[in-house]
Every structure is written in C-alpha cells, then in structure tokens.
C-alpha cells in the first residue's frame, strides 16, 4: 500500500495548474496569430469592375448626393410601407428631404433634377427608381436610387442601391437589374465605412 503525502498532492496540483495555464496561453496565442494572418491576407472585399467606392472614387458633389440618398432611401422605404405608394420628387421636396429638397444643399451640389422613373407595386411587383440628372457642377455624375425587385404581394421593399453614371446626361436604363445597368454604363456605389475603405486600399 502506497502512502501519498500532502506535499506530493500539492506538487501534483501545481503541475496540473501550470499545465492548464500553459495550454490556455498557447491556445490564445494561436487564435491571435490566426486572426492576424487571416485579416492580413484577406482585408476588405475587392470592388468589382462595375462598382465604385463611395469613399475614394466619388467627387465632392457625388459624395454629398450619395450620402443624402442613403439617408433618404430609408425614409422613402418606410413611406411606401405606410402608404403603399412611392413619393414623387415634388412630394419629397415638400417633405424637406435632401437631396430632393431645393435648399442651400441642393443649390451647392448642382441643382440636380429628379424624376421617378418606375414604381413597384403590391399587385405587379417590379422595381422603383429615382433618377437624378442635369447637375450643373463640373465633373458631376448622374444618380439612380433603385429599390430592387419586389415580389408580388410583398408589402415592403427597402432593398435599395445607388448607382452613378459619368456626366450630367445619362443613358436611361431599360431595366434595373445589375446586368442591364452595367451594360448601359452605370456603376454601383459601394459604401464601405471610412476605416474599412482605408483597410481595403492598404490591403490590411
């Protein structure tokens, strides 16, 4: 019969504690290294040929219009949900909603003319599109706010996209799917956050 002294038990417990601590530390180091390597290798997703960056590819006026459209798209989507209709540019002007509202912002960024080109409906589905064109500032683009395909019977359509066309006089689209817009010369604006865009450009 073997007698185990209290000292032996304490030493064994210390060894087990050290082993557990070491294993946890090794796991943390491996996880940190994997995360660092994975982020460094992949970074932010690359833009496709038919996409532009809201952060680095748009001029001052285009960035301002894009920002205003991003905010307006949320309100327009909820308006459609509440009233089952799409507000016209004139109604959005009356609602004081940039970039449709003819205020100092509108004057500063090119007096863009807005049209409602298409309207999705509960009964017919389809897409909704707002066109902004004929801006008066140099190097200003044209703009398209698109609420993509709405399924029949759907009460809400808030999946919006913003597209730009080089120049103030755009080619009017014959449809609003990505392939159709790209073939007509439109480019989709991708709005990474500023920090994300810097990371994407630097590759880390």
Care to describe what's here?
With 204 residues, the protein is of the alpha+beta class. 43% of the residues lie in helices and 18% in strands. It has a six-stranded mixed sheet. The radius of gyration is 27 Å and the shape is globular.
Helix content: 40-55%
* Mean pLDDT level: 80
Assembly state of the chains shown: single chain
Described by the principal axes of the CA atoms, the overall outline is globular
Topology:
Blueprint: H1 6-42, E1 51-53, H2 60-83, H3 89-94, H4 104-108, E2 113-118, E3 126-133, E4 142-150, E5 160-165, H5 178-183, E6 187-190, H6 194-202
Parallel strand pairs: 1-6
Antiparallel strand pairs: 2-3, 3-4, 4-5, 5-6
Offer a concise description of the structure.
The protein is of the alpha+beta class and 204 residues long.
Question: What are the key terms here?
Answer:
204 residues, alpha+beta, six-stranded mixed beta sheet, disordered C terminus
